[in-house]
Amino acid sequence: MAKRVAVVLAGCGVFDGSEVHEASAVLVHLSREGAQAEVYAPNVPQMHVVDHVKGQPTQEQRNVLVESARIARGNIKDLAKLDVKGLDALIIPGGFGVAKNLSTWATQGKNCSISKEVEGVLRAFHAAHKPIGLCCISPVLAAKLFPGCEVTVGHDTECEQWPYAKTAEAMKELGCRHVNSQVTEVHVDARNRLVTTSAFMCNAPIHQVHDGIGNMVRELLRLA
């Protein structure tokens, strides 16, 4: 039987939602591996809406579920309806929506809170020993919820290639172990059944980000 994988989105667009290329890569690789993706998003307002041309917030108001439906081609469910019992694994792509709509990491860093629905889903998969795939910024959710876990967001030394490396330092302060990796590599925390990869935390060619996410999906399904 095909593995059923929940994919949780955070809107549509890198600066205020899910990173579209990451979300697409997750869906493509799940399809290629013969898995069935079931897409969910919380039915809540976005923290704000960013004009992706100017890179600045606007006065618009948008809904996370409604915007995520753009990526899912309309085939999406309210996160409140997710039932871990019928699913084999969970993936949360990156994008600033993870840090703005699924949590308050964007404004509070390591002192952030995580949406109750999102926390409930992550804890349910973790308690059921079902694998969780996280890429780009989304490993911060695991760092916040599962002290002592092992994850990667790429490198912990900031440079032109790794402009968000300070994220790794904040995660270490939460008690997790950060493992440096290249953009095409993944880290598997077998004890916590977490599979993480850096994706666009790295200034890398888009095909390398796509390949890294493919490796994450394959490792996730191997554990499922």
TrEMBL record:
It comes from the Eukaryota. InterPro entries: Class_I_gatase-like. SUPFAM superfamilies: Class I glutamine amidotransferase-like. This is GAL3A protein. It comes from Aegithalos caudatus. The lineage of its organism: Eukaryota, Metazoa, Chordata, Craniata, Vertebrata. The gene is Gatd3a_0.
